[in-house]
Specification:
single chain, 340 residues, alpha/beta, Rossmann fold, 10-stranded mixed beta sheet, two-stranded antiparallel sheet, globular
Length: 340
């Protein structure tokens, strides 16, 4: 009996110790008062193993809060034992309940298989027709087994009707197809669609470049999708490289577009999707401006989009190269808090 009591006590102690590692609150950035985004809440959700979304969403959140006044909450894939940011943990993104007060959702996920209680937060948000910004691998944000409640969100869901190919196709406009440019050796230059040059979302976004390659999508995009930026495949990994000759650029694939979505006959919501968006892509001033402008549009503030809006880096931004298992280890959300 004593041994059983000791075992139960030790197990309880280990449980409490493991819980103590978990962050007590999500990462929050309070918006600077009296700026256009004041009073709007943006939730940025990261979780991919390859493109360092955990770095990119932090910097986007800081820029939106410090430079534009949005209140921002940043969420991460979290190891449930250590409480550390762990992009390779596909089954846990805590604090998704903050979506209840979100005005804009930024999704930068890849192949997540979240528990039902966490998926329900996404489902509830989308059923309200609220705005969504999808970045890079968000086209294949979820990979959910067939026996689970929210399987229809899976990138390869083979159901009939509107949910065929899941969240990516229905909400963002495309699921995962394949790489179009050569992954790791053919970078991307953004080219504004000529007919969209007066669109406020692309205002002052002439210089878009990133080392990630162009994703292939099916043309035309579904429904009311409107391409805003084409992805020009480059010969190598420099912004000054020439375009690749031949079919990869004839025609060019859209890499940014807008559309609307509707879940289960609910209200419609605005969407902006970009298949660029690694942490290194986000070093591009043009891409930073494009995503900030998109948040304004999603929040219904398109009339406040300025050609001279400040999208400078806030604090430090030292990115790591894309790659599996290449994320910086041992970090917790609190490590990204800005100093006073």
């Amino acid at each position: 009996m004593t041994n059983n009591h000791t075992l139960r006590t030790a197990s309880a102690l280990l449980f409490l110790l493991s819980c103590s590692f978990v962050s007590a609150e999500p990462l929050r950035y309070e918006g600077t008062p009296d700026l256009p985004g004041s009073g709007k809440h943006v939730v940025l959700v990261s979780g991919d193993e390859e493109y360092r979304s955990e770095e990119m969403v932090v910097q986007l959140g800081r820029i939106l809060a410090k430079r534009h006044g949005f209140d921002c909450t940043v969420l991460f894939a979290i190891n449930p034992v250590s409480g550390e940011i762990d992009p390779e943990c596909r089954t846990n993104i805590p604090y998704l309940e903050v979506l209840e007060t979100a005005d804009v959702l930024v999704v930068n996920l890849r192949f997540r298989d979240l528990p039902d209680d966490q998926m329900k937060r996404f489902d509830d948000y989308l059923k309200k027709g609220k705005p969504v910004l999808g970045i890079r691998t968000a086209t294949h944000a979820f990979n959910i087994p067939r026996d689970k409640t929210y399987v229809r969100y899976s990138f390869d869901f083979a159901g009939e009707g509107e949910w065929n190919q899941g969240f990516g196709r229905l909400v963002l406009g495309e699921t995962w197809i394949t790489h179009h440019g050569q992954h790791g050796s053919e970078a991307t230059r953004g080219v504004i669609v000529p007919e969209q040059k007066e669109n406020p979302i692309v205002r002052s976004c002439e210089d878009i470049f990133g080392p990630t390659n162009v994703y292939r999508i099916r043309l035309p995009l579904p429904g009311d999708s409107t391409p805003l930026v084409y992805g020009q495949v480059l010969e190598s990994m420099s912004a000054t490289d020439k375009p690749v000759a031949g079919p990869k650029n004839e025609p060019m694939m859209p890499i940014a577009w807008t559309k609307t979505y509707r879940i289960d006959n609910g209200p419609s919501g605005r969407v902006f999707a970009s298949t660029m968006g690694s942490s290194q892509d986000f070093e591009s001033v043009g891409l930073r401006r494009l995503l900030v402008n998109a948040v304004y549009w999603l929040a219904g503030l398109e009339e406040r989009i300025s050609m001279s809006a400040n999208v400078d880096i806030v604090g430090t931004y030292e990115t790591l190269p894309m790659g599996f298992g290449a994320h910086k280890k041992g970090l917790k959300p609190a490590d990204f808090k800005l100093l006073p």
